[in-house]
Prior knowledge:
By secondary structure, this protein is an all-alpha fold. The chain has 20 helices and no strands. It has one domain: Hydantoin permease (Orthogonal Bundle), CATH 1.10.4160. 77% of the residues lie in helices and 0% in strands. 52% of the residues are buried. The mean pLDDT is 90.
Amino acid sequence: MEAKKRGSFTGSIGFVLAAAGSAVGLGNIWRFPYLAAKYGGGIFLLVYLILAVTLGFTLMTTEIAIGRKTGKSAIEAYRALDKRFSFLGYLAALVPVIIFPYYCVIGGWVMKYLTVFITGGAQASAQTGFFEDFIAMPVEPLGWLALYVGVTALVVLFGVEKGVEKVSRIMMPVLVILSIVIAVYSITLPGALEGVRYYLIPDFSRFSVTTVLAAMGQMFYSMSLAMGIMITYGSYMKKDTDLEKSVGKIEIFDTGIAFIAGLMVVPAVFALSGGDPKALNQGAGLMFVTLPKVFYNMGQGSFLGTIVGAAFFLLVLFAALTSSISLMETIVSFTGDRLHWSRKKACLIVALVSFGIGIPSSLGYGPLRFLQPLGFSILDFFDFLSNSVLMPVVALITCIFIAYFVGVKTVADEVRLSSKFRREKLFTVVIKYLAPICIILILLSSVLDGLGMIQI
Ligand code: TRP
């Protein structure tokens, strides 16, 4: 992603696929379903959708437009627009540094499950307690973490992203089709209808500020917003590619996959647990607990479950890899440029440091279980820090910066280079008023809640 090599995507399809490749990952398949299950199902989905078409649309348009206008990546782009705001670029660059290590922990879990299914362990993985026992082990998850970081680092080091991207471009549609098949199967399990209702029909009594904060953090995370990534992608975008339409396509793609993943997991939780609220509150492990049971059930213990399970985890692994490669690439090019490290050195150091930071997240379910910052497991704490604190702050400052320092017109003019700006009014209202006010209120109430000063 160095400036010298800044090529550009051919046309809108190339751009949309590349940006969607970064956006679609564990966030959609692993994170979205467990949050939806935890935060009230339908109400979470509704809040998420509203946020996606308002705040998500606004931020993604802004980031891509800034990138395309300046032709630079985040830190340089903010600096180019206004020197006083270069700190915003650094703040944004911090987000991937927090996300990447724990992303790799989950990536390691996916590798473990793929191996279990390939080696015929479908039945064992469907047993209650299998997942808890696995993540509580002191050494094995660390091995998977190391392997996952290693694979990611090798791809980044040898610059074979293109190869992985090509493979995943074929795998992604297959993943979507397989997810639909699994979702249909989940929905038709006895007792699953209650779960479909929970997932689709909003229960307004479950609405709370925490729901909004969780949905907002998830939206940033899932669409790779508020961390400067889309600025970099925008810098590769051609001036005549329809920016607004591309944003719409990326959003539909990303949200569609998350929606299907929810449909795959949430109804199955009801079917397999009889709607026990404890099962809905599993947290980060939900996918790993529920889906193996679904796969096992599918084949009634026969070979079918093994094949579907192995195929599924392989596809998820590719979706995860494309995202973690892009995360690591960001960190490597940033540290490499700043500190004048060679690519090899930057890759090695970033991999080692990320593995190091990932260790506590991994051990937080086992030997370090007693460490509960703010009542979270360590992995959830990092997740909370980036998605519920840092990203809303970056988003807030970005909105204020564009609305009151740079001017909405700069973004609007950039959009207009390639087409009419159809939703300019919506964009203006959101970036000037709605987004700043809402984010401030949500952050304040969650901080106060965190400090125990109010009850939300
Ligand atoms: N959006 C990715 C997902 O849904 C995760 C992610 C967050 C990401 N930030 C990123 C991926 C930056 C690539 C680059 O899994």
